[in-house]
Amino acid sequence: GFQFITLIQNIEDSIEDKNAITDIVVTGGYNDWANIDGVYTEMEKFVQYSQAMYPNAKLWLAPVGWIKTTSTKKELVAQSIGAWKTSGNSLGFHVMSTIQELFHNPYLLGKDTIHPNNDGQKELARCLYEELTTGSCTILQNGLVKENNGQWAMYRFGKIDRNATGLYLEEKSKQYLFLRNGFQDLKYVGIVLNSTTGKWTFVQKGTTGTYTGIAKSIENGRWYFCRKGILDWNFTGVAKSIENGKWYHCKKGALDWNFTGLSKSVENGKWYFSKKGALDWNFTGIAKSVESGKWYFARKGALDWSFTGLAKSVENGKWYYCKK
User: Is the dihedral of CA 167, 209, 244, 283 positive or negative?
Assistant: First the structure.
């Protein structure tokens, strides 16, 4: 929101020996998208002021402004950066070249997709120093990078980030990838917390999926029910485990090893008998429904609505008469 000349005027009184200033660097380029035609005029005022106040200073221009969206504003920002470079060259700035691509990396931008995050600020400082001392800078890899073997990896300041474990958004595909210790884990099958959405999400083959069923949590090793890839804390019923293909009873989204009784299958809506959490296909007898609290007859693990006769209760071993 500042004009070119504003910031340097604000610090004028704090600089005692103005002849000792050797370099002045201007970074930015984003805000000028709203006044591209005024870039040359404002930059010219800055040059005239700086040359008068700091006669020994070399003027540098670092056009790093960017925005992470694909909107029309991105095109305007690109035009603004173009105006910076053209005007800067005309007015005698030393225009930094390699640094211009720095914030095209979305992993260096904050939530507003405009200003640099902590890593972005560190990289900007490093690149400015390199430009000032060597005339160019090396843009280090930051964020998700697809390796030659097709596997994704998380880089931070040019090195694999071994602390990167979890789900990370790949910007181009808008797909979340699961990484463990910096590399995409293609073998893991289970539930992982998505720190961006705050939801526990099913992962398979290195990315999120739309699986409905029971899977294990990476955090505590316990089993939970996912519906279309998201842990469903409201679900109570029978579902299939992706790990062993067996059926289990879940209560409020979590596998309940203490449950013995009848509950409804998420797959076909029918009722089945579970013993200590696991569906028991060998059970024939009377059991209690978790939904209604009523007692029903099950044959070979499945509720049998056609049965009429005496059967034994799983709870007390006594015999009771059932009618359809």
Answer: positive
